[in-house]
Model the fold of this input.
Amino acid sequence: MEPSAPSAPQRNVSLDAFRGFVMVLMMAEVLRLSDVARAYPDSGFWRLLAFHQTHVEWAGCSLHDLIQPGFSFLVGAALPYSIASRLARGAAFGRVFGHALWRSLVLIALGIFLRSMHSRQTNFTFEDTLTQIGLGYPFLFLLGFARPLVQWIAFGAILFGYWLAWALYPAPGPGFDWRAAGVPPDWPHHFTGFMAHWNKNANLGAAFDQWFLNLFPRPEPFVANRGGYLTLSFIPTLGTMILGLAAGRWFRAAAPRVPVKKFLMAAAAGVASGLLLHALGVCPVVKRIWTPAWTLFSGGMCFAILAGFAWVLDVKGWQRWAFPLVVVGMNSIAAYMIAHLFEDFFRSSFRIHLGQDWAKRFGAGFEPLVEGLAILACYWLILFWMYRRKLFLKI
Done:
């Protein structure tokens, strides 16, 4: 294996801004735009915003669906810089790999902790973004020391092997008990024909979880995930991180130039190939089960967004506007934890000190939006305070 050149890397503003953009999308869930849209059912504007703040039911994509791929992609993009930094400080491979394993375990534990917050006991589930990244991170780290050809071979093997395993697993037959799987029999998102191999809670990943998750203590046997999410999604998520690894490698290799054209070519290839697989009935584009077609499509979208940030911030040098995003992006783990831990505290604090109906002064329909904006501002101010004092939560 060949390590990256041990030259000290420079901080990449476009990667920080992209990461901040992803985290702001996640934190902005507190705006509860779906509630606003329900209050104004005749407004196409609010319906559009609400759509892009929710996950699609099965096949397709909203802006909200790109949060987890974006975060995973950026983990890969940061790895070449991380490896180069540690090698520049003279760290041995064994020590660096040990740190990667530790990071993996912490990410897995944090994901389980966050999913257990409202449970009476530990909720051993592995579909959280942090957990999914943690499960694949050691493999990503090892690939970070491999030649680009090896990385691409691994990427292709992961996607094809995962697709083949699902294609060979029996599709649900006429007698399948959909209600037992938590899915209405007449659910309009069921696939037919070959793509039925990727139907909700009637697939290889769901069968694996019915065995694997019941190995852990739980109040009642696990049957199915209501959203269709799966433990095994960490495998194609690793593919998303490998795409990010390629992006980070291209960034470092081209410095001080910015490989915007290469990013755009990768974006076009990823989006087109994902949509083509879906259109041909080979593999659907479904985020909830992270199909290989979704890996390609969402990876292409990540390349496109990165190209936009890189062109504006690095090529044109228009960076001042991105400062609020950079503040968040440089402390992404802290942002993730704050968004999951502090929402109820801030919501109740505003109501206690400003009155239970304080946000209704701007209109009852806008109450969730106004309250959410106040909470989101508090999130950002905490991160800004940490930024000013150089307090960055790292694993």
The two ends are 25 Å apart (CA to CA). Residues 1-8 have pLDDT under 50 and may be disordered. The chain has one domain: 13-388.
